Amino acid sequence: MHFGRASLLVLLGLSLGACTTASDDYPSLAIRDVERAAGSMQPAEPAAYVAPPPPAAVLDRLDQLAADAASAHSVFRSEAPRVRTTVAAARGAGPGTDSWALAQVAVAGLESTRSRAMIALAELDRIYVDAAVEGTELTRIGATRDRVAAQVDEQNAAIEQMLGELR
Question: Is the pTM for the entire model greater than 0.85?
């Protein structure tokens, strides 16, 4: 057994030596021309996205909601002077007095009118979000929404001022 191991090692050593010859038949490991990077390595410019316009039904709904909000705003503006007069008459009166109660009811009527504009604004918000998710062009929807939001903000400020006078 001892002889078998030694001869196995000699044979193994001789076979390894046969793998290393002095020939220059090996390919070069240098970078070939085809492997060289060419060009600028800059990504191509993407084409600009052009959002499609909103569908006609959405535009019709926008017009309807804007008209509803404008109508509510007009009613609010026409009622506000009367309510301001009622609130001014109740200034200084304590809670529970007739003038204070009349002013509270008058302001509540204005709040009811404002709610019509707020409902239109909420619907415009939903339309805006839906259009944004769908990738639809938002300019007209956003402009209508901003216009109605400005009306609601004006109404909120007027109501807050009147309620402040009643405190």
Answer: no
